[in-house]
Amino acid sequence: MIQKVLVANRGEIAVRIIRACHQLGIQTVAVYSTADQASLHVQLADEAICIGEPSAIKSYLVKEQILSAALMTGADAIHPGFGFLSENAQFAKMCVECGLIFIGPDSSVIESMGDKANAKATMIQAGVPVVPGSDGVIADCEVAVKLATEIGYPVLVKAVSGGGGKGMRLAYNEEELRTGFVAARQEAQASYNDDRVYLEKFIENPRHIEVQIMADQHGNVVHLGERDCSVQRNNQKLIEEAPSQFIDEALRIELGQAAVQAAKQVGYVNAGTIEFLVDKYKKYYFIEMNTRIQVEHPVTEMITGIDIVQTQLRVAQGEKLTFSQADIMFKGHAIECRINAEDPTKNFMPNPGLVNGLHFPGGNGVRIDSGIYAGYKILPYYDSMIAKLIVHAATREQAIAKMQVALNELIVDGVETTVDFQYEVLSHPIFKQNKHDTGFVSQLLEE
Question: What is the pTM of this model?
């Protein structure tokens, strides 16, 4: 049984994991950079140890420092959260080599699914629909041009090791493809030290639908329903909701079955997410598997009543899932807004600084996941997300109204945030009528 978990992360997800551990009677170790000494996750953990300088590449991304901290404090396991080393196969492998439990899938699965081209090939073997495109890596621009002519424009050049829109270029014609091919490879090399790219047909005006899966070490795999993550800016999600009211019940069942099959195909264990694009004809295509807990997991928790992080911990110590697919019931509707310390009037420029005053909303069906407090200094070294506001209600319409009230009540004094922009999105007729797609935010910003 796990006695002590080192949380290899910071901010709200570190706080979330620490709370889940404490609820299970598990001790926790926080790691922090020299800039993060006053952070909430450091204060809540049973122990805390400094692992380096403010820059993530000198602290939260230094595998050896984190592993040393785990061994020094007698931790049994490491939870990576999301971001940083959460999908680093080498880190997962090193944890096991050091006698530690890595709370996530096996390193071989992380490596396999982290390679986008390989992930696509694996899904084809599993019978899961994929976006038309290259069978693997394309190293020559002429090959890309020939394939684009065959599958038809527009197309996407995508980095094999990419994520969050980096190493990705959209092309509507051959000229744009030639330029984008070179640019994508250069950006991929700079971002991931891996310039390999592949080609996909660009699905115009899709919805981004993802399915949460959970698997134990005994061969049991279930899905916890889908989330609609179509409100995005620059391929970064802003608002997520569950369930999706874009798809019908037949497609919901089919997506869930496809996600479970995908997980079984790779021998997946622990929490993961299978992401799909769904076009206007309700055809769906696999795009990637996230081998970690995701930012938006709370909306799934709200409609299922299942604590995903606690389930991760139980599965990691060898327990069987306590629920079957038939046991999972979906109740009501949940929405999550990511609150970032950014200035929407200045192209969403990060706005770090001192939180002079803070008021979080509350009430029935309102949840805040955050690592900030009054007097906390938001740092410039890390991601600008400072909180997640989640609401749950009986219907989508009621959830939107509840979220609007909660956003109106949320006060973060001292820094600019995206609260007002989120309210604007929620109030827009296109969003309210559920007629938006992944291009909605771009259109809204052009208005």
Answer: 0.91
